[in-house]
Every structure is written in structure tokens, then in C-alpha cells.
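Everyone, carefully examine this protein record:
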Amino acid sequence: MKIYTLASQNVIETVLFKRYMPHLISTLLAFFVGIHKEMNEKLLFIKKHINLKNSFVTIVFVLISITNFRAQFCNATVASNETIVPTTTNQVTTTYNSGRRAFNFVATAGCTYYFETCGLSTSDTYLRLYATGTGGTVLATNDDFCGFQSAITWYCGTSGTYSVFLTRWGTNSCNALNANASLRYRLTGCVTPYDPCASIPTLSCELTTNYSMAGSAGAWNNYGGAFLVPGQEKLFAFTPTVTGVHNVTVNASAGYVDLFWKAQSLGCNTTGWTYVNDIIGTETWGINLTAGITYYLMLDDENTTANTGTINIACPTPCSGTPVTLNMTDSFSDGWDGAEFRLQEAGGTIYGPYTLTTGASGTQSICLPNGCYRVILTEGDFPDEIGWSLTNGATTYASASAPNAAPFNTLFTIGGAICPPAPVNDLCVNAAVIDLGLNLNQTHTGTGIGSTNTIGLTQYSETWISIIVPCSGMNLSLSYCGNTPIIDNAYINLFSTCGANPTLTGATNWNYTTCANGSIALNWNNIPAGTYYYPILIDNIAWPDSYTLSIVGSYLSSPPTGSNTQTFCSSD
């Protein structure tokens, strides 16, 4: 747990909420589920208010009904479960006048079945049709189809064993019978069932393919999407030649269709699908696919009316350099919380930013020309959760693990490239000398290419100058006027030494008006004589190349006319 010492409690509360609320919710949920098992109610709503310091959190638990929890019938007390065999001839079950009665049967895909109590009872009957022979998911219900009696017409999309449950409407719809009642049933007819796997066209990059969906039920219904999809399914096969994000554009002209995808190796069936989104009109969605693997893409209609449209895949450009994968992890499984990953090529090109939006892990495919690169990773709100690596197959170019992976600034090469040499004044001990005793107005030019990060600022590396202030002391001005692009950030301290624990002399003021182009200018007043060291920040994102720095000193007292600096200092 992290606790920051701040005047505001917000950071503490945010961290506590983030760290412990999921565990609290899990504990409460387990507790309430225990209560739920013991209560004989249709639905249990529990609202719990929790005051976490100054934050007020409201958690609403809407627990699943006992019917679904038990995965049986609407009531666990079932007087009988009779096996019936529907045929094209009407048949009638045994007559019952008590209890809740189940009837299980084997159904064939493509066939339609009819069940009714019309004319067979004086009671107010209620019918349910379940997905198994012993209950489970309710597929259809009916009440008062013919007076107080009920009827269900049902099309079977998948062969299997199902059941009809006969009860009475009273205080609820799942009461035991209290008058004579029986069930009439028959098979009304069969058609060849729709098979989405029977014909699967192959998609190609940039080639638009038409599709049509008949106005009838599909073979599948729900496998992980946000909505039920009872209409027909349309499957397509696609094998990418390039690894990366493929933009799938779907035009659905007559109603919503849902887009799914999975590897073909998982089979043409209802399992393993990844839901993308529901689509109406024209929408484009990116899917990260791996070269050489064949995938299924599926469109499934959210209704059983006819629908037509098109599908097109825009493929990424083949990588002319080295395909690299950025592997991102988060130990708390909630994404990087604002941290951003960039790669800067030695010539200045920036790749990124990339981030892990949510979850415990994610990948990003990046095509990098051979060369020298700098990793620039900002810290975000929770840097100790972050981990990352840059890989190509078994080759790892750079990596770092939590809790020491962010912020980060390092160099690596691809394809045998050699990084540019560091500038001569890359380190403080090799600082370029600016002797204001010799010249009060000096200009230092340099480059940041190849510079290293020595003072730990995330996106910056540094070069160094040393400034010699004569024995009379000076006012000192540093400015970045004339740089393109503008330089609007700078270190505001002079260092007394390159060694450990330097004394820092902070700038008296700074502004963005001295320079006509808006670059930063800094001023120090009454600087005592001595040698000072100054880090020139190289922003590896905004201005990674050459720079110009103006250094101007002004004496605190004027030397005698005709005397040089040394004479003035010696008699001072």
C-alpha cells in the first residue's frame, strides 16, 4: 500500500480504494451469496453503503434469482419428470391435479414443437421450456394463450434433450397444480437446420465481400457478446500475411449485427469467440492478428429479420524493418494508470505513445527500421505496478520488471546498428567550460543525440556545462532564444559539484517573454564567485537534436576603467 503525505486526503483515499475495494466487494458478495442460498425468495436486492474516509461509496448487489442459482426449474420441488416423445400426431400426457410437473423430450435441430394446455385444465396454467431435461436456462415461457391456459411453439436450433415445466399461476407463476391439468404436444414439422459452418467464404485484404442473412433463426444465440443474437450467423475465413492491427469495416444496412472473431483451430462452434462490438450502419474496428494463423470472423444478427451488408479488411503495411512486440504488464490488473511508452529513433522519429489501457497484460506490434532507439517510459500514477519488454521471437531488446520498470530511459539497437556516440559533455565531469571572467556574453551549442540520463528525469537526458563566475560575483542569465522547436523547459538549479550531495542554487526567476519565440529564459541574482555545473535538459520527445544556449554574466560592481578582470579581482 502507498500513502503519500499531502495536504489533501484524496491521494490516500484513492490508493486505499483502488487497493482494497475489490477484496471488500469479493468478501461481501460471498457473504450475500450465502444468504441467498438460504432464502426462498424470487429475487434478493441488497444495498450496502460504505463510508471510506471522506469518499462515499455505494455498492448495489443485485443477486441472481434462486432459479438461476440452482440451474434447475423455477422451484426445486418437482413432483414428476415424465419422458415424452413428440411426433406429428397430437399426444396428451397423464392428467395431474397436484405438484409441479416436468416433461423431458429429445428434440432435433431444424424441427418445430408445440405444447399446450388449451382445453385440458380449469386451472390458470403456466408453461416454461428449459434448455436441458432437468431445467436450467429458460428458452420460452407462456401464460394465458387460450383463456387461462398456455401454449408454446418452439424451434429447435441445436439437437439435444429439453424439458417443459407445467405449473399454476397464483401468487407467482411457479405454484403447484390444484386442479386437473395435462399437456398436449406434437412435432409440427422439420426443415434442414441452418448450418453456419456449411459455407465459409475466404476474405482477402482490401476486397469488399457481400453477405446476406435470411429472416429466420440462426443455429447459435449467445456466446459472450453484450446482446442475444437469435438471427443467422455469417462466418468468414481470413489468413493474415502481416502481424498487426487489421481494420475490419462492416456495413449493416437493415439492423444490428454483432462482430466476433477467433482462431480457426478452435473449431467452427459456439465456443472461443471474442466479441468486438454490435454494429449498425458502417463501422470500423481494429483486430490484432498474427501472420500465418487462419481466423474466423463472424457476423451474427441480433434479430430474425432479413439483413444484408458488406465486410472489408484493411491490412497493415508489411514491415520493412524489424517487427517488434511491446509486451505490457500491470501487477494490479488495472492498466498503466496514465503511464506512456515511447521509442525515439536516433534521428528523432518518435514511435508511440503506447499504453496498457486496462487489465493485467497487453501487446503492441511496432515495425522498427534497423537503428538505435531510446526507451522513454513515463511513470503514471502507479509506476511500481508496471512491467514491459521489447521482443522479436526469442530476442529481447530491452525489458524491465515491476516495481522498477517506470519511469525508464535507456538505449538499445536493432539489426546490428550502432548508437551515435555520446556528446563530449554528456557527463558532468566532462562539462563544457564557460569562463565568464574571459567573456561576459557567451554561446554554447551542442547536440542531445546519444546523451544519457544521469539525474533521473523521465523523458530527459542531459549534457553539461560548467560556469566560472569571477571573484567579484555576478548576476547570471541563461536563455534558449532562437531554438527550433522552442525549448520551454529547463533545469532551474546550478550544481556546486559533480559529486554526491551537491549544493543547489535555484534560479531567482524565469520567463517565456525574453525570447521572442517563447523559449525559456532563467536568471540568477548575486551568484558568489565559484564554479557551477548546469545540466542542459534534452527532451527526447520534443527537442532531441541540436540546441543553442546563451550565457550572460553581469558584474555586481564595475571594474576600474582600463583594468582587466584579473587585476580587478586581485585588488577587490
Remarks:
- DSSP finds three helices and 35 strands in the chain.
- The radius of gyration is 37 Å.
